[in-house]
Structures are given as C-alpha cells and as structure tokens.
Amino acid sequence: MAEAGSKLSGAQRAAIFLLGVGEESAASIMRHMEPKEVQRVGEAMATLSGVSDDQLTEVLGEFNTKAGSINPLGLGASDFAQRVMIQALGEEKARSMLSKVMPGKAKTRGIEALKWMDAGSVADIIVEEHPQIMAIVLASLEEEQAAEVLGELPQEMRSDLVLRIAKLEMIDPAAMEELDKVLEKQLGRASKTPPRVVNGMTSAAAIMNNVNADLEASVMDALRESDAETTDKIAELMFVFDDLLALDDRGMQRLIREISVDTLVVALKGVDDELQEKFFGNMSSRAADMLREDLDAKGPMKLAEVEAAQKDILGTAKQLADEGELMIGKGGDDFV
Fold it and tell me: What is the full DSSP assignment across 211-275?
C-alpha cells in the first residue's frame, strides 16, 4: 500500500495526482516535464502498490488549494508568449525575436534532445568536438546526466573539461550557434540561440558531486595539478558527506526515513563521532542502539564501498532537497 499522506514525498504526490487525473491528462502534463522529473515521477509510480481514496482526495485537495492561490495572469507568461509568437511568425522568426525580447528564455532544441539520450550516446556525439563545445554541452545538461557523460569520455579529457566548465561565465552566441551546428549533424536539428548566463563553477561542482568516488579522485587530482586555485573553489562548492552535519533535526529525520539500514551502516564506517551522533540523535533509542551494534559488528570495509554508500545517501539528500523536503548547503543563504 502507499504511505500515509503526510509521509508521501513530492514525487509520490505528483504520481498520485497524475493517477487521479487520468491517462490522457497525465500524458499531456508529462509532455511538459523535464527528463529528470519524468524519471522521478515514474519511479514513484512504480513504488505505489495501492492508493487509497483518502490519499487521492488529500493530494487533489492540496493541489486545488495551491492552484487557487496562484494568479493565472502571471503563470507561464513567457511560455505563452513563446507559443503565440511561434504560431504567428513561424519558428525561425519567432526564435530570433524571442532572443531579443526575452534573452535567455528560448530553449536550445539540440540540448533538450540530448537530455533524453543515454550518457554513452551523448559522449559519442561530442567526443570528437572542440573541448570548449564539449564543456558547454556538459554545463547545459542536468548535473547527474553530465556526470555520467563525463565518465563515458576518455580519461585524459576529463580534468580539462571540468576546468573549462568551472571557468564558464557567459556562453557566447557564436559558441551556441556552433553547438547547434554540431548537433544538427547528429540530430537533424538547428536553431539560433541567445547567449545564456551560466554559473560554471557551480556546474562543475555539481557534476563532480555526481560522479563515482574513483572518477572524482582522479579528476580532482589531475585538475589540481593544472589549476590548484580553481580546484579549491570547486571543492568548496561540492556537497560532501560531512555537510550533513548542517541539516536540522527535521531534515535529518526525513533523510533517515529514506535510507536503508544496510547502506547507513556502511556509510558511517570510519566517519567521526560527531557525524555518527548526528544520525543516532535523530533516531529512536532502540533504532540507534541497533545501528551501533551493527557498526560494531561490521568488519573492515573497503574505502570504495564506504564512499559509494555515502554517495548514495548524498544523492538521496539532494533529491529530497530538489523536492523541497529539506535544505542542504554550506552555510549562509546558499542552498542546493
């Protein structure tokens, strides 16, 4: 059975909502979702073994309440303008006009197509291109997908690409045009695109957060040899396991509910007492005692296994943060 309404994640609520509006409406809604969102909602649908009438009523009622508080005149105005201009002027002229009146809003169709492709295919498309073009592609993808693509590229390219991404500040229109020409050869799509402001340092850190531990170590070591200052800035922005200390108790409790005991036992091997106590303090006394016993009984673990478990927990934390279930960051007003 599905969980009680108060314990449902954002993705599960979205899944129940789509189930409630019917197949045709759900399909129409999902056509406007990003690949990452489709994946999360799809996974949530797969976990729902049953939905009660009370849960459906609660989710639909919540949607109705929130939708009623939104001013429809301000909702999706830019998307509305884009659709109207395309219908009135045709796509080519409309995109040219949109780049002037709404800079940064027109989507790059080639990049949007890549977001639906597997990492290996994307790597095959860009591997022969100029490194700066490759860096722009990676910075334009979702961080998780970009991390997978980075892992598919030759090892000798990786640190240079992360360095190029970290130094991106503004993507030149000519570079974006060149990017679409590259994609046109592979995807049969071409478009003129406006300049796009990017935070390259944040993108580089987010990509490195999503690669496996071995790849992270090799890229960061190579990157440090070529540009230690940039490497330090990337490392400062990366979300690491120790950063979970910054979670408030409510956030930590929410995170713990999503982690399997086996994963937690492995992840906590070798971490300092303060972080272990952060987990213990947000569990019931019985659960904390059992976890301590499991930790004591656990023999030596390979560092790679511990890091993999920690990466898994960090991925869960970032997903919950994306869904608004908790806030994670390195202090100040910055959250990821």
Answer: S-HHHHHHHHHHHHHH-HHHHHHHHHHS--GGGGGGS-HHHHHHHHHTS-HHHHHHHTTT--HHH
Give 3-37 as a DSSP string: PPGGG--HHHHHHHHHHHH-HHHHHHHHTTS-HHH
- Determine the topology of domain 241-322 in CATH: Annexin V; domain 1 (1.10.220)
- Whether 251 and 329 have beta carbons less than 8 Å apart is answered as no
Residue partners of 218: CB distance under 8 A and separation at least 6: 155, 158
Quick check: pTM over 0.70?
no
> What rounded mean pLDDT belongs to the chain?
75
Q: Is the pLDDT of residue 163 over 80?
A: yes
What letter represents residue 64's amino acid? N
Query: Considering only CA atoms, which of 196, 142, 133, 197 is closest in space to residue 161?
Result: 133
Q: pLDDT band for 1, please (50, 70, 90 cuts).
A: very low
- And the tokens for 87? 């219908």
Q: Quick: pLDDT tens for 285-304.
A: 999 999 999 888 888 888 88
Type of residue numbered 66:
K
Phi, psi of 171 (to 5 degrees): -85, 115
The answer to whether domain 104-237 has CATH 1.10.220.30 is yes
Domains 104-237 and 241-322 share a fold: yes
Interhelix angle 249-257/273-280, nearest 10 degrees? 80
pLDDT tens string 56-109: 778 777 777 766 655 444 445 455 555 665 666 565 555 555 554 444 444 556
Domain map (residue ranges) of the chain: 5-70, 104-237, 241-322
Are 146 and 139 a contacting pair, CB within 8 Å?
A: yes
Phi (first) and psi of residue 33, to 5 degrees:
-95, 155
